[in-house]
What does this fold into?
Amino acid sequence: MRGATWWRAMAGAGAGFLLAGCAVGPDYRRPEVELPATHRGAGGEQLAAVPGELGELPWWELFEDPVLEGYLREALENNWDVRIAAARVLEAAASLRGVQSGWYPTVAAGGDWTTARTSRRGPAGLPDSADAVREYGSAFVSMPGYELDLWGRLRRATEAARARLLAVRENQSVVRQTLVAEVASRYLTLGELDEELEIALRTLEVRQSSLTLTLSREEGGVASLQDVHQAEVLVAAARAVVSDIRRAIEQAEHALSFLLGRAPGPVARGSRTAALPLGRLAIPAGLPSELLERRPDIRAAEQGLVGANADVGQARAAYYPQVVLTGVYGQQSVALSTLFEGPARFWQFGPSVTVPVFTGGRLRSASRAALARYEAALSEYQQTVQNAFREVSDGLVACARQREIREALEARAEANRRSAELARVRYEGGVTGYLEVLYSDQELFDAELALARARLAEQLALIGLYRALGGGWHLPEGTADVRR
It folds into this structure.
């Protein structure tokens, strides 16, 4: 008879498991997002939507610089932000496992043995002939409380925890994408600063030679003392620029060292990329809809929305009755020798039901708060999508316009170079004064610096476009994956 009672109890638990398929609250559906037909390109024109894999390509290989590739590997292994992101993934994974443990009953085992002496003069009033010392003990296995997920509360909690794990993983990809772009940008900036330093040192050398020539001409009565002072001004200005560029180089090295997880110090450079590799690649913008799947920040925002949607279901499930199963099975006896005999067996099993009757508005407030978080997550998702399209259009425009700027500045620098040479020839021939040399020399200096900066800006625009298209974060070959 007792066996039949046990099986009836287990059958009731099985029915509860079958009912656990019901989950209240809304199921997630990806919200509709207004997608542009094309990405805006340069000059107000619209670039045709051509399916492309630009965001998937290892763009750093275009620069053909193994030193840069080595730094990317080093940064992805040693950077502190990457390590923090990896730890947060582990934390989210552990949190998911903790939530999933609610699907399984908690089983505990225990036992005790007690020896007690009863007072013969106490309320029990034991006679002198009775044994005042008694022993008793037990051994048992218990299930303190197992909730039947009749309304999907645990299912929604698991769904939310899984979504948050996926969001953290996508945010890890965002961190890596940002890091790769930042390392490449810092490295290319260092190369551009090296070029600026070469320009400044070359200009300083030319100006010192010009000062020497002007001093000789002044001693010979051909040049005036004013010409000498103007030449000295040019030399001093060039020296100041050289010192300023060296300061910028050292600080840029420190910034790159930090990204690599190193102490501040010098950073080796590879071969400089003088010509921008943009001409090697026709840049397809890709279909706007592809951006939703490529960009990790969009995927992270969507997983945040999935989690918020599941939280709404959890809040609604709290309105329904909570059914918890408890049970214990064990042996109990007053003698150790009979503890494990059949008659010493005991068990208890049964459900308990809790129905919220009055909570002072707590459940309603929790439900409203969950709905508000969902609306916030929805707005964040839509904002992320819209910002992604803006960044792609900005990147396309920047690549096109920076190319135009660089080509114009190349023509300007060449014209300034010819003008400066002519001015020096005219001055040395006594045709014109030193003021013309001063002006043309400064114009050439400014033009060469502007051209170097324009080349860097074009390279950075390409990196920005890759990043906007959702690429540039995959590990180079041979890089350890810090997520493991």
